[in-house]
Specification:
- This protein is of the alpha+beta class and 313 residues long.
- Strand 2 and strand 3 form a beta hairpin.
- Helix 4 crosses helix 7.
């Protein structure tokens, strides 16, 4: 079978150790890399870990399991997919961080891959996906590390959680949020939904949401269903004031019933603050606006999930 090998690289104005640390902390990848939706990680030994990644490839949601070996002294991370997603038959590679001087480094990303049945069309599909994702990831890595290293975050990234208590079973509240295709019938603030789940537990959700002022905006998310207690998601079509929005819906049984929570992590888009909120608006104003808008929708959804679970008790 044909094995293809490719390499991508980028130079970053930050110390090599800081760049390596960001690559090693894989659960933060959805916040850094545009293609990554969610990552689950388990340690399997010293310097060894198994990770399950949900990510887009050529704008299609995929999931695969990889084993990684972390070599901090050499600033290298090797990876090999244990359970590839077709049309990939095999995929592996290495992240290599090379110090250039105290304030800069080169990052090289190596891949080797094979296609199922050595199909030329599939090889081309994989080549395009690897090239697109590698370029996207390296550019995002450079932007995130350099911004953090320059300490210019201005508190642009923040997180918060909304929670309700439920006098009913957690599984019913989970079902309400999981069945997002029914939201236009169940949620007043949702005008339209396009919902698909071609791979069990990996959902694509596009919806039109009504704002307080009556306007509607369209968002698109990929969602990862984890058992019957968590749904993680990442928005890929975002409102104008955000460059990042990830979140997790969590459902837990308690002694008295259940709790349901909606956690958000957001990065503000400073380029649009003046256009959306006026020329005098600050980063703090944008934080408050986005927090309020997301909480309003989250609490509305949680409130209806609570009512649904309590009716079904």
């Amino acid at each position: 079978m044909t094995t293809r090998e490719v390499e991508h690289e980028i130079t970053i104005s930050a110390p090599a150790a800081a760049v390596y640390r960001l690559l090693a902390e894989v659960t933060n990848w959805p916040l850094i890399f545009p293609p990554t939706i969610y990552v689950d990680r388990e340690e399997t030994g010293s310097g060894e870990e198994r990770i399950r990644i949900w990510a887009t490839a050529n704008n299609e949601p995929k999931t695969w399991t990889s084993r990684r070996t972390l070599d901090a002294p050499s600033l290298r991370i090797t990876f090999r997919q244990e359970v590839p997603a077709p049309p990939v038959a095999a995929m592996g590679g290495t992240w290599i961080v090379e110090p250039l001087d105290d304030g800069a480094c080169r990052v090289r990303l190596l891949h080797d891959y094979r296609a199922v049945g050595d199909d030329p069309h599939d090889l081309l599909w994989i080549e395009r996906a690897v090239d697109k994702n590698s370029r996207s990831e390296l550019a995002a890595l450079k932007e995130n590390v350099e911004r953090a290293h320059a300490a210019q975050t201005q508190e642009l990234t923040f997180s918060f959680t909304d929670t309700v208590t439920i006098d009913g079973p957690a599984k019913d509240a989970f079902a309400f949020v999981n069945e997002a295709g029914l939201w236009p019938e169940r949620l007043p603030h949702v005008a339209r939904v396009r919902f698909t789940e071609t791979t069990p537990g990996l959902q694509e959700l596009e919806m039109d949401t009504r704002a307080k002022d009556g306007s509607t905006h369209t968002t698109k998310s990929y969602r990862v269903v984890l058992g019957e207690h968590r749904i993680a998601y990442k928005q890929v079509t975002l409102p104008a004031l955000m460059t990042l929005h990830t979140g997790v819906w969590t459902f837990e049984e308690t002694e008295d019933g259940a709790t349901a929570s909606s956690q958000h992590t957001v990065t503000l888009n400073t380029d649009n603050i003046a256009r959306i909120l006026g020329p005098e608006a600050t980063v703090a104003d944008a934080r408050a606006y986005v927090h309020s808008a997301l909480s309003t929708n989250s609490l509305a959804t949680l409130g209806h999930a609570k009512a649904y679970a309590e009716r079904n008790r």
